[in-house]
From TrEMBL:
Coiled coil: none
InterPro entries: Acyl_transf_3_dom, Acyltransferase_3
The UniProt record lists the keyword rRNA-binding: no
The protein, known as: Acyltransferase 3 domain-containing protein
Molecular function GO labels: acyltransferase activity, transferring groups other than amino-acyl groups
Keyword Transmembrane: yes
Domain Acyltransferase, residue spans: 103-483
Membrane-traversing stretches: 107-126, 138-158, 178-201, 239-258, 270-295, 315-332, 353-373, 385-403, 424-443, 463-483
Record key words, sorted: Membrane, Transmembrane, Transmembrane helix
One annotated GO biological process: polysaccharide biosynthetic process
One GO cellular component, as annotated: membrane
Amino acid sequence: MAPVSASRVCSRNASASVKSVAAPRQLGVSGKASASASASASRVCVSHARAHPRCEVGVGKATGDVQRRGESQRCYVAKPNGSAVVMVAAGVPPAKAKKPRLPALDALRFFLIAYIATGHFVAFATPDKFLLAFFSQINVVVGAFFVISGYVAAYTSTELNAYEATMSRLEPALKWSVARVMGFYPLFLLIQVVFTPMFAFADMTYNGLKATLLHALMTFTLVQAWFPMKAELWNAPTWFLSALAFSMFVLPYALKPLAEMKKVGLKKAFLALTVISCIAKLAYTYDVPGALGLLEGMGKHPNLVFFNVMRFNPFYAVLEVLMGAVACRLVMTDNAPDRTMEQRKEDGAVGALTAPFTLAVAMVGLLAARAFAFVNGVTLPVNDMIVRGFVFIPLWCLFLMQVHRATVSSESNGGLTEILAKPFLVFLGGLSFPLYLLHGPLGQLFYKKVIAKQMFGATMASYFGYKFFPVYVGITVLCSYYLTKVMAFAPFQNACKALGESTYKLLSA
């Protein structure tokens, strides 16, 4: 066989060779074909190696020299694939690149929800001011969940090493959106129904029957995030699902044009999304007296309506979801056919200041620095929204990209990415969504006065102080584990499927 620099390979027996080469055959680094490929191809010859040393990668039409040998012949194009070469039959589309699993992303979800769940109830866990300030920055960190949602959606719905979307998944757009929402709504609905008596009791105690019925409608239909002062109704953390659901109905219309963008366009898109997000956060900071310097989780806010718009409104969630999608496409196109080897090497670099561990330290250090400053009475000229938009989300996007690259790189030497891919951490990642849904209701059960007094005579904090918090954590984790068993239960899965189909029929009617 000729060296890998040869550009076109042809066979005289088209009927035999198309069968043997239509499915891509890889040549080794030495350029030798496998024995099976050699045996199945009747006669293989190299042509135009000198005339076309830089022949474009792809399927091409046979040149004049080849055509003169007989119209029955077919032309093949040698396609670089890392250190190997792939032969593809003319007229036969190359096989889609297979996407490797990214187990580290599952583990990251667990760490995110562990931080946020702790932040929601940290006042019952410790009196330490530094820890209170550190874990109270949930409005900074929660944006990471939107980013990772967009990242995964882009990874599963666009093509690897190609500038195209997976249209078989994205069309029809409504069906794609409903499928994504049904990925979380059934379990949300189950938890909502189970805890409705508790939620409704507390709501009726403070707001009466009419308001309670209205609030039930808002939460069951996941529209509460649009109402700044009502976004945290009933199961407070589920405002996130309300904003995410809206984002999933926007995303299919954005994924196709994003998938068709090359590196330059994607970088411009990421910059534009970041600028729009940051302008809104600057407006909030400018218009609210005293907003600059606030550590929002550690005191009463001077303008809660404006602050709630910034942190709950689905429009801003869409921006961060799209940032995640763009970040994913920047990695998925690292080895696109038009990228040179030098560009591929530069794009895939994971070391030095952009190593996942370094970026993780930077993000945790950012939260710790703000907490340390607060405890020591130092007012930094930032707030949660400024830190989130200008620093944390860009760092998080880069972190996800580098974790992705380290996962798929053949030159990766382990490090943080390998640790995140450990089976136990991936298992914990599988608990993240049940943890997210359960930590709020269980926290209300144990710590909310109007409910805990009815159930236990007083809150667990009154009985046990800070000592009960580890028990609350253990109960939440255990219940989350059993909830994953419910998710795997065939009747539950069948009910989810039926709900999705009926919802799609209703919305598409």
